[in-house]
Amino acid sequence: MFNRILISVPQEQFPQMALERGKDLAERLDSKIYLSYIIEDDVFDEVSDRIRHVVTEKESENFQKKMTRTHEKVAKKIILKEAERILGEEPDEFIVQKGNYSRALLDSIDYHDADTLLMEYESFNLMKYRIMDISPVPVWIERHEGDIKKIGLFCTNLSPNRMAPRAARKLQKALNAKVQGYYVNDPAGDTDEDEPGEISDLFRIKWEDVVNEKVDRFIFSRAKEEEFDLIILGRIRKRGYFHLRSRFAKRTNCSVLLMN
Questions:
Q1: Is 240 helix (H, G, I), strand (E, B) or coil?
Q2: DSSP 3-state assignment of 153?
Q3: Are 36 and 147 contacting, i.e. CB atoms less than 8 angstroms apart?
Q4: Structure pTM?
Q5: How crowded is the C-beta side of 139, counted as CA atoms within 13 Å?
Q6: What is the pLDDT of residues 225-246, one digit of tens each?
Q7: At the topology level of CATH, where does 4-140 sit?
Q8: Is 257 or 58 the better-scoring residue by pLDDT?
Q9: Residue 259: in which H helix or E strand, if any?
Q10: Pick from 231, 181, 174, 227: which is nearest to 208 by CA?
Q11: Which residues are 151's β-sheet partners?
């Protein structure tokens, strides 16, 4: 992981923090950086609805083609140039796609053979597109400006626990960061996941705490108390992206790496 990083560039907001994080990871881990700018269908659907009764279908189709070409020119002349300025060099590849955001993003992951998806939290509505559910690779949601110096690793009986410790160890070494590991036994757990001792022995993790508590409540309170720059966790079933809901997102500034 972190060898081939795909950075999503949505139309709503330029992901400056995500690009800055991508630059840092690329420099420290010798990663390749790919950018995907997606022109969403919603833009064209809205225009089509407005002009449907005053133009022919052919005229509407031609208008959409012109809009697409305009978006592509803007992407290449403005978006790409600004991304190059932040990265300090050209990305390994930059593509412009048109279509449904989620499907286009999945196509980009497959096209670039990306092993990490890097996105910026405030750039668009992650819940709407359900990126956390559909991504086949780890998803890094960037919300923190500056260096990653303090990482919270959360393993739990509700999620797979093999990838998260590996990611924590790799980032600890590359970023010279401190990792604090926690194991949470959620009362709702009915899975036979790795026990704390097994994970500790396998990945040489010394747990800061092993607790019996609801996962989301514990992570929220501990992340706020410790002021982590980044938290890492495996996907927690249907609550896999609880940390993006308003209560967590509005009261903490840490980034999240979800290990799908």
A1: coil
A2: strand
A3: no
A4: 0.85
A5: 23
A6: 898 999 998 877 655 455 555 4
A7: Rossmann fold (3.40.50)
A8: 257
A9: strand 255-259
A10: 181
A11: 179, 230
